[in-house]
Amino acid sequence: MTDLSPSGATAKNMAYPLNAWYVAGWDHEVNRKKILSRKIADRPMALYRTEEGRPVALTDACWHRLAPLSMGSLVGPDGVQCPYHGLQYNSAGRCTFMPAQKTINPSAMVNSFPVVERHRFIWVWPGDPMLADAALIPDMHQMGSDEWAGDGKTIDVRANYQLVLDNLMDLTHEEFLHSSSIGQKELSESDIEVTHDERTVTVSRFMENIDAPPFWLKNMRDKFPDFEGKVDRWQIIEFQMPSTICIDVGVAKAGTGGLTGDRSQGVNGYVMNTISPVDQANAMYYWAFMRNYRLESQRITTELRDGVHGVFAEDEEMLTAQQQAIMDNPDHEFYNLNIDAGGMWVRRLIQRAVEAERAMMASDADLTDAKG
Predict the structure, then answer these.
(1) Which entry of 95, 106, 185, 370 is 20 to 30 Å from 121 by CA?
(2) How big is the CA angle at 80 (ends 75 and 85), to the nearest 5 degrees?
């Protein structure tokens, strides 16, 4: 038996890196109409925009009595007001007003988290702000490219975020969980190739001369209305630290070069996924399906979004049941199959990041004790 959780940790005790970028919401969700409440990696955040349009993320708890700032109101060009006693904070998290007194306690402040708006998402860094580097934001350029069209949704998953990553890194489950849409027996019969480096893991699968499953047959006929016959199918899954997975998927007329680079006789999509841990048993799952054909068709965009949403609803039901089973069996250790290779590497990279952060925190604590 192999423990899928590194360092002997049980499945339900999976952790997450803090010095990393996570999505806190779609760009349109963060605005000046209402302060958005989110919890990322066990850290409650209040998100809004300044009058200039810059996104801000503050700790969602007033310094005074911990009242949620997300229940408050926006004040001035960049501030928020506590809904309970009226303390005001600027976008840097410093208190700028206290009721019934002129002197402001210099310790009155809340955390202001680094924020970047990119790829139609609002990204936050819950860890050490001095280490926040925008260059580390995962590449999801298809989300904003004129060469791709698509849309997506958010799933409030009642499961640990690493279970969602497991699900996406092994698409063999499509044969069994999504048999009416994208599943087929060739998924289990084909070989996979797994590569990795310090921040990414890639799983590749190629299937030649097969029948197109219902989902892909519809897509082929959206581009080639009279299509009949066999297809070549590909799945190239790329994980990027800490929790983003972009999947290059598609089919092409069999033997026309779809598996070697010429996809002109096929349809190509990217399933964009980024998962933000809320706590140990909940996650926010942001996804979109982007395509590079028939870009002008809103009908196809909507049909693809709704079709993929139906597929992911089946995943959500399974992940929720799996999380409950993990909580009901706290001593159980996961077993590994060959199909788990990609997911195992993802877990190793995440665990290495967590352990590195723990070591750094311990070193800082020892240094503080020595000075004290």
Answers:
(1) 95
(2) 100
The residues near 182 (Cβ < 8 Å, ≥ 6 apart) are 174, 213, 214, 215, 216, 311
pLDDT per residue over 295-308, tens digit each?
A: 999 999 999 999 99
A 10 A CB-CB count for 260 gives 9
**From the DSSP assignment, how many helices (H) and strands (E) are in the chain?**
6, 18
Q: What angle do CA 124, 128, 132 make, to 5 degrees?
A: 55
Burial class (CB in 10 A: 0-12, 13-18, 19+), 51: exposed
For residues 311 and 308, what is the distance between their CA atoms, to the nearest angstrom?
5
Tokens representing 20? Answer: 């990393």
User: Pseudo-torsion of CA 268, 198, 145, 53, nearest 10°?
Assistant: 140
> pLDDT tens digits, residue range 132-156?
999 999 999 999 999 999 999 999 9
| Cα 192 from Cα 241, distance rounded (Å) | 21
Among candidates 24, 277, 318, 279, which has minimal Cα distance to 161? 277
